[in-house]
Amino acid sequence: MNNDISRRGRFIASAAAALIFLAGCGSTSGPAPQSVPPESAAVSSSSVAAPPTSAGAPAQTPTQAAAPVEPAAAVPETVGPALPASQPVALDIPDITVSSQLLQLGKAADGTAEVPPGEPGSPAGWYKYSPTPGEIGPSVILGHVNSTLSNIGVFYRLHEMTQGQQFSVSRADGTVAVFAMDRSAVFKKDQFPTLEVYGNTKRAEIRLITCGGYNPSTNLYDDNTVVYGHLVSSHPA
Fold it and tell me: What separation, in Å, do the N-terminal and C-terminal C-alpha atoms of the chain show?
C-alpha cells in the first residue's frame, strides 16, 4: 500500500470516531428552500460525522458518540485529473453567487474540529485533515447556511446547485481547481453515512457541507446537506 492510499485509509478510519458541529444552518437541497429560522433565531449547533484525525467543532449541544469503523479498502488506481497537494485559499460558485475566502479548519483545544465563525459575512472553511482540493480523495469544505444575525450564510443557496454546474477552488500554488457537481443529498444527522461521504475515491473529489431541516420547535437543524463534485480541470490563477 503506498503512502497516499495509507493516508486516505487512516482518514476514513478516523472519520466515524468523532463529529463536526456546524453552528448555523438552515436550507436543504432541492428546488426551493425549506423553512428557515427567523432572523432573530440564534445560530444553532448541528452535527456531521467528521473526517480525519479529529472531529467536531465547539459544541453548543452535547456531542453524540459515533462507532469507529475499519479502514476502508485500498483504492488500486486513480481516474481522471489530479493535482499535487496545495492549500485552498478561495471558493467560487458562480451559479449561487458564492465567492468566499477559505479558512483552514483544524482542531479546537478539546480535540474537536473547528468550524467557520458564525458572524454575518463569515467565510467557508477547508477541513485541513482532508485532502486538499484537487488531490485524490474527498476534500471537505464546510459553511454555514445562516448567521448569528440573519438567515443568510455563505452556503445559504447550496441546495440550489444542480448536476453539472461548475465551481472552482483557488489554491496557494497559483492553480485553480475546477470541479463539476455530481449530485447533492440530504441526510438526517443521526443517520449520516460516514463512508459514503468520506470514503476513499479513485478520483479527485470534493464535498461541500452545510445543514438543513430547520426545526422551529427546537431552533435546531435536523439534517445535513452534502454536495458531491469531482475535478474536471485546472488552470493558472
Answer: 34
Pairing of strands 98-105, 175-188: unpaired
* Sequence spans of domains, the chain: 3-61+81-236
3-state DSSP call for residue 15?
helix
Query: For the whole prediction, is pTM greater than 0.90?
Result: no
Residue closest to 18 by CA, chosen among 113, 120, 159, 134 = 113
Kindly report, residue by residue over 124-169, the tens digit of the pLDDT. 999 999 999 999 999 999 999 999 998 899 999 999 999 999 999 9
Q: Looking at the domain covering 3-61+81-236, what would its CATH class be? A: mainly beta
Element (H, E) at 51: none
Cβ 213 vs Cβ 44: under 8 Å:
no
Residue whose entry in the numeric block shows the C-alpha cell 460516514: 194
